[in-house]
Write a structure and sequence with these properties.
By secondary structure, the protein is mainly alpha-helical. Helices cover 72% and strands 0% of the residues.
Length: 237
């Protein structure tokens, strides 16, 4: 496994949710080709359930993968995707020929319902995780427009709560200043002088917290990133 991929896996398994988004973004072609090969037909992201199942299976593979055990991530992920798709095909075949509860007594039906509910809950949870990963990947692409990478953001995130809360307060103020926002998004640079006129803060604080501040402003002001406010500790007004 490439060092960069290994590092992303390790970061995600250590709790860095954004690493999953980057892995999904990098490996979408692999997920697509694997699904197409197993299905033996063309598949489409906005149409076929098989690709959604493959994405969930890839997420499962990332969670379960153990870098020190030989096989690389993609080999392991291929196996998981194949297993999950085969399970899906078998389930679909059963549903086409036999009612889900046919031939079962009342106790078996109840157990079946419990298992089915759990499967649905698990599916929804994984879908939410995948949606979050996709949002984080989109957020990273947005940051790159401002010359900021996710690694930059992690490194620039204030370690002290007071500093973090101070920058969040500044971000909240700027989010209501249309002229500053327009300048920021047009020039892809924080207009430090203008910010200093509106907020009692030193240039040193703004320069040091620039990357974190820009990231928080993007999350606050762009609706598609509302779901990641919790990651930045942002409270809705």
């Amino acid at each position: 496994m490439q060092d960069a991929t290994r590092e992303l896996v390790e970061q995600y398994q250590a709790g860095n949710q954004s690493a999953l988004g980057e892995l999904v973004r990098q490996q979408r072609p692999f997920i697509y080709k694997t699904t197409k090969r197993i299905c033996k037909r063309n598949v489409y992201w906005d149409k076929d359930d098989e690709l959604s199942i493959a994405l969930i299976a890839f997420h499962e593979a990332v969670e379960k993968y153990e870098p020190g055990k030989g096989a690389n991530l993609l080999t392991f992920a291929h196996k998981i995707i194949q297993q999950r798709l085969i399970d899906y095909f078998r389930k679909e075949e059963r549903h086409h020929h036999l009612p889900i509860d046919a031939g079962k007594d009342e106790e078996e039906v109840e157990v079946s319902k419990i298992e089915r509910d759990k499967a649905v809950d698990d599916h929804l949870r994984r879908q939410e995780q995948l949606e979050m990963a996709a949002t984080l990947a989109e957020f990273e692409e947005r940051l790159i427009e401002f010359g900021i990478t996710m690694e930059d953001l992690v490194g620039a995130s204030p370690k002290h709560r007071d500093t973090r809360e101070n920058l969040l307060d500044i971000a909240m103020i700027i989010s209501h200043e249309d002229d500053i926002l327009s300048s920021l998004k047009a020039k892809k640079q924080l207009p430090v002088k203008e910010v200093m006129k509106r907020v009692k803060v030193s240039r040193k604080v703004l320069e040091k917290g620039r990357k974190y501040l820009i990231a928080m402003i993007i999350i606050i002001t762009e609706r598609q990133f509302a779901s990641i406010k919790d990651f930045g500790g942002i409270k809705d007004e």
